[in-house]
What does this fold into?
Amino acid sequence: MPKPPSQAQLSEGTKTFSATKKMPSDSEDFMWGVSVSSYQYENPDVRKGEADYFETDWDYFVEEGKAPRKGNALDSWTHFDKDLAALKKIGAKFYRFNVSWARVEPRPGVFNETAIRGYVRMARQLKEAGIEPIVCLWHFTFPGWLYDKKNPVRSNWLHPEVQEYWEGYLDKIIPAMAPYTKYFAPQNEPNGQITTAYLVGQWPPGILLSTKRYWQAIEASTTMYNEAARKVHELVPGGKVIAIVALPWWERSVLDVTGYFYRSLLHTNYDHLDRVVASTDMIGINYYYSQVVGVFAYATLNSRRGNHYSMMGWRINPDGLYKQIQTISARYGKPMLITENGVATRKDEKRIEYMNSHLKAIARALRDGYDVRGYLTWSLADNYEWHYGYDATFGLSHMEPETLDRKLKLSAYWYRDIMEKYSSRAAFKKFGSGAKAH
Ligand code: BGC
It folds into this structure.
């Protein structure tokens, strides 16, 4: 194994996390698949006034004109069959989706049993199709009743009763999903969401530069994560818990003389994970880009275009993924799964090139002895991309408006062939090395 990254690459006060390392055998299958999220795909399928009507904090943000309208997205709630058909065509082995807390608990303490059955059915149908579900319990949005419009600070992670309600939700959803679910991810990128919500001020509750609120949110979310992990381990025989984290590769700018800004951004990568790693079986790396930490880079973000950037101005850097794998391995010593990786582009060849180069970086990491268990790409279809609305297209397919069919792009067929040809770890290790796969 090559030398781990220097301490300087890790955040201040680096802790040592010990773990018993048992590498999987090369004959095991690599965990190939696709990631999606409920809010970005599902239609609400309820009207105001109906008993099960629900809203989320993000819907309020949309109403206030702070984010683009979502509408019915990909109609995935009523037409999961369309997603499933696409998954089968692509040959995905794993599918990561999430349960919408707002949908299953439309009012405090009141559960929508039909909605719960809907999610259970999804997991069962996936299993029947030979696709292993990875179920996330929170992907950015909160039930609207945890949002205090008059006093947004007392919302979401900082709602006085959030932890109590979260427990009630866990007690309901974990046993319900358990018969068809082995892999649970309590939260998707809490670190990224908390940074965007309490420091950048761009996501609900839209608070700018409050380190006090940031730390309060980290405290609440990590307590809630650990509670979810405990319940999964207790209630699901053989259950595995994945900590999914947003892990951009930050680079230090020469103008950042003291390194203050760089270190601050490293904190946003690891503050959450440091506090939950002990109850975690696998670390889920969401990696998209690398970024020089500095005012100039941020100011020019939206105008950056060309081969080295996505249509959102994110810098394409597969080597950043390799380094991130090294860093996470050195810091935590736990198995890793790439839980999101993909590119917003209208040029599908660019998507293939992006995936190809990032897969090469992962295969190299495998050859170098790092314990990466699988790869899930973002995403199955072009979807609602938060404050970018429908403009940023990450999909292996797009939805045909009339039939709602997911029309596969070339990248989907390319990915299908890769998953088939490199299905085992042994085969995938050779990817991009010049050696034959079989
Ligand atoms: C999120 C997804 C999002 C993707 C691309 C990740 O941060 O988990 O919801 O669509 O990045 O921006």
